[in-house]
């Protein structure tokens, strides 16, 4: 689909369903069920094509393209259900659509839209039972974050919402108790009327909320201190049943170098990692993506802006390795390493630094695996 | 100009050029990048901050005179100086790098957009209460950013009740405005000091990546500069123009336009755009292009010129421009063309500077 077409109808839900939606459906390109069924691992990422259009791809364990999907809006994160049979591709903010695809067959995708007065923030997560999909959303007229609840057993109808207890909820994850939802409230107010502009930098305050998904109750919340008031926590991975590792993006001057990463532990609070200032500076006040190893001991953190990926001990941030490579953003765990995806279309094994494969599209911010 | 035809022609050019996007430069030399950083500071930042500070001093002096001797003449002088200060601010406000992003200086000079009229309500409430803490600089600086800067001063000098400033009955109003003017002057002084020749900050900013530099590497340095341009143009289109110009005329919001009371909306827009063009020309971003097989630079220059000329042909006040079909069409033309301009700088031009698949692609949420 041409960029022009998207630009003409960027947010009009009705026109999307009539126009871009039908084009999207007819453009779905499935390259074979055998590849999916035969693969132990599936990688997924949103991409930007060389003609400027946006899409999403699924790759098998040998990084072979399985599905190549055209999207009407730029995508952000992709979430799988716990069986890996369904993938949900969220639009990047302030997009208001999420595309739901079957990973193992050619069933037609379902497109859901955020309700009136809401848009997605690009992330979501399935409940432990796979019955519900939670999505981070912006209630932009009231300037508050919401967690939309969608029924995965009934065409993903929206059945409710609860507060994110902050502004600008971004990545959300379910902890291993299957009940607690950790929410990274970026703290930045936006309104689709003003594009992607940040409206409250003077007063922003980022936080991590732990919410009971059974009743939407706030269990506890940890707000960033005043000295990092302009740090926006965006992404997290869970490294323990009560703990997450977070990464932030600093909205202040490049002149100030701030700690960007740390642990947030329920019952204890935020603990920034004590990293060498030289290393922190290499991240250019920005973290793009986080991924955690299968044993939950090691975390990889990327900074496209700094051209670096750091590999750390998840519990304390001790540096294990760093890779200086420009344009890397997406990260996903491998058996003994991580795979990193770049804007230049390359997949790199972080352990060896070797390029695994090159594509003629650009990988977007996140890579996920199941 | 027939804007419909112009747009169609433009799309044709765009379609053609995007078919032949030049491949990325291998790598720009550190020396070349530092040359552009230096030119940006010397040709854009410093002269414009000097201008901003000078105009802030003039307004402060005019306010001093008005509060001491309230009369028609001094009110007019204060209003005139405010308008000049607004334009001077418009000439540098979008260079959002370094100290402007510290201590909420940006928001303290100008709190905008103010979607819920928070600033206006705060100013009006405090006017009624005659909150004396607003007439002392240190105290004002601890208050909400919305009552500290140009938005507050504009309402006090041009808003409802401002004509009372010709007499001592509006003494509190005058002192409030004078203190806010002093605050803007103080911030202008801090900014100028940070960027002045020989300052530690400016020396570090002009280095493209070493132990003394603000930037971790050359890529971050050029990202910062291109970010000033791309994000600035986005704000210019989405907030400054998009704030008042809607698809249908009946939804236009002239009273949401920036500094509409002083009829500064269009002059500030013009000053904003002149700075964007300046970053490319005097700032030297164009000079980073080593090989321009597709004539991208000439094409961008043409687009800048078209927007500038169209903007210059629109007359204030903004409410009148919106009420005039031809002028309104020009505003829409500018808004639409800005979209293509941003796309080309963000994509095609960023690629030519070796920034992978487009600059803002790495602004990854």
Describe the structure.
Chain A is mainly beta and 370 residues long. In chain A, 9% of the residues lie in helices and 48% in strands. Chain A has helices at 3-8, 13-27, 33-38, 277-282, and strands at 29-30, 43-48, 54-59, 65-71, 75-80, 86-91, 97-102, 110-113, 118-126, 132-139, 144-151, 157-163, 169-174, 180-185, 207-212, 217-223, 231-240, 243-250, 261-265, 269-272, 289-292, 298-303, 308-313, 319-324, 328-333, 338-342, 346-349, 355-358, 362-369. In chain A, the strands form seven sheets. A five-stranded antiparallel sheet of chain A has the order 1-4-3-2-29. In chain A, β6 (86-91) and β7 (97-102) form a beta hairpin. Chain A is globular. Chain A starts with a helix and ends with a strand. Residues 1-28 of chain A have low confidence and may be disordered. Chain B has helices at 3-18, 30-68, 72-90, 105-109, 118-129, 137-140, 150-158, 171-195, 200-205, 218-241, 265-280, 296-312, 318-323, 325-352. The longest helix of chain B has 39 residues, at 30-68. Chain B is globular and about 65 Å long. In chain B, α2 packs antiparallel against α8, α3 runs antiparallel to α7 (150-158) and α12 packs antiparallel against α14 (325-352). Chain B folds into two domains: 3-38 and 202-362, no CATH class; 45-198, Up-down Bundle (A middle domain of Talin 1), CATH 1.20.1420. By secondary structure, chain B is an all-alpha fold. At the A-B interface, α1 and β29 of A face α4, α9, α10 and α14 of B.
Question: Secondary-structure map with pairings?
Answer:
The complex is a heterodimer of chains A (370) and B (365).
Chain A: H1 3-8, H2 13-27, E1 29-30, H3 33-38, E2 43-48, E3 54-59, E4 65-71, E5 75-80, E6 86-91, E7 97-102, E8 110-113, E9 118-126, E10 132-139, E11 144-151, E12 157-163, E13 169-174, E14 180-185, E15 207-212, E16 217-223, E17 231-240, E18 243-250, E19 261-265, E20 269-272, H4 277-282, E21 289-292, E22 298-303, E23 308-313, E24 319-324, E25 328-333, E26 338-342, E27 346-349, E28 355-358, E29 362-369
Chain B: H1 3-18, H2 30-68, H3 72-90, H4 105-109, H5 118-129, H6 137-140, H7 150-158, H8 171-195, H9 200-205, H10 218-241, H11 265-280, H12 296-312, H13 318-323, H14 325-352
Helix pairs in contact in B: 1-14, 2-3, 2-8, 3-7, 3-11, 7-8, 10-11, 10-14, 11-12, 12-14
């Amino acid at each position: 689909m041409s960029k022009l077409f998207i630009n003409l109808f960027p947010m009009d839900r009705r026109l999307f369903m009539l126009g871009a939606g039908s084009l999207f459906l007819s453009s779905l390109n499935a390259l074979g069920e055998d590849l999916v069924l035969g693969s132990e691992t599936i990688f997924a990422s949103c991409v930007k094509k060389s003609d400027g259009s946006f899409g999403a791809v699924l790759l098998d364990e040998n990084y072979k393209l399985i599905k190549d999907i055209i999207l009407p809006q730029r995508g952000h994160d992709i979430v799988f259900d716990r069986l890996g049979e369904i993938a949900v591709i969220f639009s990047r903010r302030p997009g208001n659509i999420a595309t739901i695809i079957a990973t193992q067959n050619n069933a037609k995708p379902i497109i859901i839209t955020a309700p009136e007065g809401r848009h997605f923030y690009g992330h979501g997560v399935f409940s432990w039972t796979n019955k519900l999909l939670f999505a981070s959303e912006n209630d932009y007229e009231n300037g508050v974050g919401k967690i939309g609840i969608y029924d995965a057993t009934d065409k993903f109808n929206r059945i409710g919402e609860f507060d994110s207890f902050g502004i600008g909820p971004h990545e959300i994850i379910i902890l291993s108790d299957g009940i607690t939802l950790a929410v990274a409230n970026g703290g930045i107010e936006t309104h689709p009327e003003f594009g992607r502009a940040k409206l409250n930098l003077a007063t922003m305050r980022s936080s991590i909320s732990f919410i009971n998904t059974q009743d939407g109750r706030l269990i506890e919340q940890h707000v960033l201190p005043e000295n990092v008031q302009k740090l926006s926590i965006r992404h997290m991975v869970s490294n323990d049943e009560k703990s997450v590792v977070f990464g932030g993006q600093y909205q202040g001057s490049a002149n100030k170098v701030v700690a960007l990463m740390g642990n947030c532990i329920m019952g204890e609070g935020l603990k920034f990692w004590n990293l060498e200032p030289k290393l922190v500076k290499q991240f250019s006040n920005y973290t793009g993506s986080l991924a955690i190893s299968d044993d939950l001991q090691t975390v990889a953190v990327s900074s496209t802006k700094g051209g670096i990926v750091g590999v750390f001990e998840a519990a304390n941030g001790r540096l294990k390795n760093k890779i200086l490579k420009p344009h890397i953003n997406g990260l996903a765990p491998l058996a003994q390493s991580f795979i990193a995806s770049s804007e230049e279309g390359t997949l790199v094994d972080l352990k060896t630094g070797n390029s695994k494969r090159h594509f003629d599209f650009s990988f977007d911010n996140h890579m996920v695996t199941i | 100009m027939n804007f419909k035809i112009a747009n169609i022609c433009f799309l044709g050019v765009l379609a053609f050029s995007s078919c032949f996007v030049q491949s990325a430069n291998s790598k720009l030399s550190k020396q070349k990048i530092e040359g552009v950083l230096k030119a940006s500071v010397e040709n854009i930042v410093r002269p414009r901050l000097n201008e901003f500070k000078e105009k802030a001093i003039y307004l402060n002096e005019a306010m001093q005179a008005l509060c001491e001797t309230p009369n028609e003449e001094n009110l007019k002088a204060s209003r005139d100086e405010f308008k000049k200060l607004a334009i001077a601010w418009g000439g540098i406000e979008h260079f959002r790098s370094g100290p402007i992003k510290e201590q909420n200086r940006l928001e303290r000079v100008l709190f905008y957009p103010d979607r819920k009229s928070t600033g206006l309500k705060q100013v009006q409430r405090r006017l009624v209460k005659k909150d004396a803490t607003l007439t002392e600089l240190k105290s004002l600086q601890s208050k909400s950013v919305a009552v500290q800067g140009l938005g507050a001063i504009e309402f006090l000098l041009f808003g409802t009740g401002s004509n009372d400033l010709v007499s001592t009955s509006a003494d509190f109003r005058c002192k409030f405005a004078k203190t806010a003017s002093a605050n803007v002057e103080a911030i202008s002084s801090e900014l100028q000091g940070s960027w002045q020749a020989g300052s530690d900050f400016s020396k570090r900013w002009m280095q493209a990546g070493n132990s003394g530099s603000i930037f971790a590497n050359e890529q971050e340095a050029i990202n910062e500069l291109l970010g000033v341009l791309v994000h600035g143009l986005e704000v210019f289109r989405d907030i400054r123009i998009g704030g008042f110009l809607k698809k249908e005329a009946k939804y236009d919001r002239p009273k949401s336009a920036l500094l509409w009371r002083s009829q500064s909306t269009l002059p500030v827009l013009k000053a904003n755009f002149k700075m964007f063009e300046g970053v490319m020309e005097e700032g030297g971003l164009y000079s980073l292009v080593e090989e321009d097989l597709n004539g991208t630079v000439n094409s961008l220059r043409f687009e800048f010129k078209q927007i500038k000329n169209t903007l210059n042909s629109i007359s204030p006040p903004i409410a009148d421009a919106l009420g005039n079909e031809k002028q309104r069409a020009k505003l829409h033309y500018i808004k639409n063309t800005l979209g293509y301009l941003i796309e080309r700088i963000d994509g095609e031009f960023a690629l030519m500077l070796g920034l992978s698949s487009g600059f803002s692609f790495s602004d990854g949420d």
